[in-house]
Amino acid sequence: MERSAKQALERLRGVLGVARSISDSHDEGELLDLISTSVCEHLGFGRCIIYILEPDSNFRARAGANLPGAAPVELPAGYKIPLAAYQRVESGCERIGGVVYLDGRSPLLSDPEVAPHFISTPASAGGAGEWHPASLLFAPLLGDGGTLIGLLNPDDPLDGKLPDPDSALVLESFASLSSIALKLVRANSEAAARVRILEAQRQQVARLFEASTTLQREIQLDAMLSEMVRTMAEAGGFSRVGLMLLEPGSSRLRVRATYGISSEQVRHLLDNELDLEDFAPMMRPEARISRSYLLDHTRFPIPDELLAALSVPDARPDWKPGMWHPLDSLTIPLYDEESALIGLISIDEPVNGLFPEPYHVEALEYFADQCATAVSQVTRFRRLESLAHTDGLTRLPNRATFMSRMLRSLAECIKREAPAALLFVDLDHFKEINDSYGHLNGDLVLRAVGRRLRNSLRTADLIGRYGGEEFVVFLPETPLPNALAAAEKLRKRIESHTAGLAEDGHLKATISIGVATTADLDPSVLANPEHAGKRLMALADSALYQAKAGGRNRVSHDFSLNGSHQYRFTTPSGGARLRHLA
């Protein structure tokens, strides 16, 4: 007994020798490594594994140590001890003080609820009636209120003997010290993470306020999202972050910002169309933590199709069970103010190689909310911008927006000495359409005409609703013959494709078009694009007047009072030909 007490005292001295190092630890992974190593070196065990209880009610190995000469143990991939299995062992064990001990010959180890979850390990020493290779020894790690947060699992006592009460008391004391150190390092880590997050948040808010107008915010959205994912990665301690937004009105996801992902991998993601449904396996209810999804690949397999689309990198050479693997994932949903899902943030490769703690995930969610707010603000701005710049009935640019865009395009043409043309389009007899068929059918005609005009133009061409039944079209890089041909194409398309819009099927719409080009302007006017634009509009309006005076459903380039330089189609309903009246 005296020898046992003396041995326990020596071990206690050894434990106290490392106590300061344990209390000074600031990294959880380093702390757990130090604890497991100290158990082996100072408490006389060949091996020690530390298990941490995770939110899914499973203990997973987070650290382990082997003394030189002790038989090493490699845990299988995905190894875990369910809380229920441990509680079953605890309920049928022999207790040595506060330490849980189960003899390797106990029938409990054959229990179907226990047997699959515990591994028999080789012993360095031992004999009959002493330590059995299948024996289990656990010193609980306790958190606030005595809640179980983990287990110290010493194994393979070097003297081959069972722990006596004195040795068990030392082990129990060391577990208590380790629990306090673990609580402190987690509190310190959480505080440090919150400081980093708050400081990054402060900087982000400052940057957002620098973009003082909604227009600037619109222009800078992609830059802001890129900055946010960078901050999430650096402040959160991750190597790779990707942000995807849902395309409006669909379940398709589009990559909008990345960090730590090569341009080749980004192209791979863009080439492989991702759908929200593809991410369902990574967002299982069982994997939920806070409002995010932390997926452990050893528990939940990922479909091969999704793996191919995501281009998952290889595992790091030093990977072992309990560490983060490239097949693991953290997915944070993005919600707008109305709690509608608008996108996802995928986070990967923690710098410390470990699974993030719940408080860490919550801090990352705080940043995700920033991203969602920025996206929502821009979406709202786009809706307001659309109302301000778009005609509500035809969805074409309104008069002010068209004029602004037309003047910019005209200025470019003048600068390059390129020709340009303006078409003034008027819907014929629109008052009669409203009087005969009603305003609802009149609106249908305006929408149909606007849509067909727009669909008949080139990408660079501009169109807008000028007001009432009038439309305007600007054709950059277009000389007069091409402009007249384009106008005739529009006239024919409306004449041929608007029949049957009204309920009785008899309504048919036609248009008249006035054409003017930059070649019709006095060269001195071209020095001022704004004056040139106004003059071009006036000439096209005059030509439109002549087209309507000449019988409607025609194209005119006649904007002079004496009728010179008039071009028009004299047989618009069939066999049209272009005639110049000198």
Structural write-up:
With 582 residues, the chain is of the alpha+beta class. The chain folds into three domains: 2-185, GAF domain (Beta-Lactamase), CATH 3.30.450.40; 211-387, GAF domain (Beta-Lactamase); 399-581, Alpha-Beta Plaits (2-Layer Sandwich), CATH 3.30.70. It is 42% helix and 21% strand. The chain is built from 14 helices and 21 strands. The strands form four sheets. Strands 3-2-1-7-6-5-4 form a seven-stranded antiparallel sheet, sandwiched between helices. The chain has a seven-stranded antiparallel sheet with strand order 10-9-8-14-13-12-11. It is rod-shaped, with a radius of gyration of 38 Å. The chain starts with a helix and ends with a strand.
Topology of helices and strands:
Blueprint: H1 2-23, H2 28-43, E1 45-53, E2 58-66, E3 81-82, H3 83-91, E4 94-96, E5 99-102, E6 136-142, E7 148-157, H4 165-210, H5 214-219, H6 221-236, E8 238-246, E9 252-259, H7 263-271, E10 274-275, E11 288-289, E12 292-295, H8 304-310, E13 329-335, E14 341-350, H9 358-389, H10 399-415, E15 420-427, H11 430-437, H12 439-455, E16 462-467, E17 470-476, H13 480-497, E18 511-517, H14 529-549, E19 555-556, E20 566-569, E21 578-581
Parallel strand pairs: 18-19
Antiparallel strand pairs: 1-2, 1-7, 2-3, 4-5, 5-6, 6-7, 8-9, 8-14, 9-10, 11-12, 12-13, 13-14, 15-17, 15-18, 16-17, 20-21
Helix pairs in contact: 1-2, 1-4, 2-4, 4-6, 4-9, 6-9, 10-14, 11-12
User: Could you give the count of β-strands?
Assistant: 21
The percent range for strand residues is: 15-25%
Using the alpha-carbon principal axes, give the shape: rod-shaped
Major sheet description? 7 strands, antiparallel
Widest sheet: strand ordering = 3-2-1-7-6-5-4
CATH superfamily membership of the largest domain, which one?
A: GAF domain
Instruction: Detail the poorly predicted runs.
Output: 207-219, 561-582
